[in-house]
Amino acid sequence: MSLLEKLSDGFDSLNEKDVKIDEYKKVDASELGENFNYDQEFEELEKMSIEAKANRTFLQKLTSFEFELHFKNKRNMVYLLGGFSAAAGLLSGVDQSIISGASIGMREDLKLLPDQQSLVSSLMPLGAMMGSIMMTPLNEYFGRKASIIISCIWYTLGAGLCAGSRSYGMMYAGRFLLGIGVGIEGGCVGIYISESVPAEVRGNLVSLYQFNIALGEVLGYAIAAIFFEVHGGWRYMVGSSLVFSTALLVGMLFLPESPRYLVHKNRIGEAYDVWKRLRDINIQKNKLEFLDMKQAAYQEQEAKATESKARLWTDLFRIPRNRRALVYAVIMVGLGQLTGVNAVMYYMSTLMGKIGFDEKNSVFMSLVGGGALLIGAIPAILWMDRFGRRVWAMNIVGFFIGLVLVGVGYKIPIETNQNAAMGVYLTGIVLYMGFFGSYACLTWVLPSESFDLRTRSIGMTICSTFLYLWSFIVTFNFDRMQNAMTYTGLTLGFYGGLAFVGFFYQILFMPETKDKTLEEIDDIFSKPTRVIVKENVVGMKRFWGIS
């Protein structure tokens, strides 16, 4: 079955045209009033959508500029929005992996010392931290779509500076600017997709972003292999981002702004116009979901009228519902980074050399790890919303086994058993990267759907900042940690130990958000933690047939 066919399964429930108003969970007569006139409401929305564009400010016209596309089949617009915006992951993936091969030639041309080379690799996640911090004001004032376009500009500046570097200082600056683009994009894409597409396919399409990161990493290794023997080839490698950033920037001009962001900004008419392009408005469920979204936005605006912006930040920690979502999302993001995947990606060629491959073959063999990550992401894209989040989180067991084999591979003497060492190591890398491919999808899906509308941008900023902070820590300290712990101690003891602990955290504390609208997920995180744990324990007992 094709990807589109799998995704289309998620629309089955949208073909029910006889949904009754009082059957819908969030919007009912008690909330909207017994005399609420639905026909009149949508007639008003139609008028507002026509008038909205004429009344936009200059900034709104600039940030929402679009070459409008219309499809008779609404799901095609959903696929286009989710698929193309998720393609931003290609940029992030290429820039993460390309440095593995580029560092070999760069080291000689720029006369890099070991610490300087570590900083070149780790400055991108450090810049991404800055981009994550910038993401909240950009998301708030310019919108989700415009923020992704702004990230493309940072990518372009950074790639150009890296390609033209004449000193390690220029390379530092270029990698940092690239990181800013990564940080802005990484937080915005998940929000943009999750706010725009139906709940039934939200997990699949947000997971597609991780697939494109993995695809970008494979492309990065392939580009490195193509230009490895070209004189000054590392400049072509690090400059390749220009192609991807330009394509993404142009493509985003054909996509609409997030309808939930527009409602959040009280641009109801524009939001309804976008909603009609993404949903079949003749289906009652889609009408009711829009009313639910509109009602939630009005409640938010009433709350904002009596609170300061500082209150919004404190509410993220003060209100139990928000605090539970934040702790959960940060821990899940941490499990995706502190188990070492980015350090392994950045130093893949170097690690291949440690196990016995020469420089050229190290670059080519890096494709094995990147390919495993790519293939591993495919099942999560196809079936994320079919099997649920908790099922995919169990992939942590698979990449723990991979880390065990990687650690064992380092212990086999390459002087006497090189083939065995290579075989065990590569098997471990394939398992580790393959299972992590599906697991990594969760690190983008879960934060993007866990926070309420008021705190979503701030919550994603915090999650993204922690993600790139941990990536910087494990990448910059990779050599030091290997020297202190040995190769086996780092992969098996540190990375593997964290994966082992994470397995039990997920079993007990991870809620299931499969098939839930963003508004319904509010109800899940409004439950006390002990209730979530109790429900998970009961579910596990039922699964194993324990009474």
Structure description:
This protein is an all-alpha fold and 547 residues long. The protein has three domains: 43-62 and 261-306, no CATH class; 73-256, Growth Hormone, Chain: A (Up-down Bundle); 311-546, Growth Hormone, Chain: A, CATH 1.20.1250.20. 79% of the residues lie in helices and 0% in strands. The protein is built from 27 helices and no strands. It has helices at 3-9, 29-32, 38-52, 58-63, 74-86, 89-109, 114-141, 144-163, 168-196, 199-227, 233-239, 241-252, 259-264, 268-278, 284-304, 309-318, 320-337, 341-346, 348-354, 359-387, 389-393, 396-411, 414-450, 456-476, 478-509, 518-525, 529-544. Mean pLDDT is 82; it is low at 1-30.
Approximate helicity band: over 70%
- Helix/sheet category: mainly alpha
CATH class of the largest domain: Mainly Alpha
Query: Number of domains in the coordinates?
Result: 3
The best one-word shape is: globular
**Strand percent estimate:** under 5%
Poorly predicted regions: 1-30
- Gyration radius (Cα, Å) is 24 Å
The N- to C-terminal Cα distance equals 38 Å
Number of helices, where a helix is a run of at least 4 consecutive DSSP H or I residues: 27
Give the rounded overall mean pLDDT: 82
The biggest beta sheet is recorded as: none
Q: What's the CATH architecture name of the largest domain?
A: Up-down Bundle
Q: Count every beta strand, where a strand is a DSSP E run of 2 or more residues.
A: 0
Helix-strand sequence = HHHHHHHHHHHHHHHHHHHHHHHHHHH
What is the CATH homology-level superfamily of the largest domain? MFS general substrate transporter like domains
Pfam families: Sugar_tr
GO cellular component, one term: membrane
Domain Major facilitator superfamily (MFS) profile: 81-514
Subcellular location: Membrane
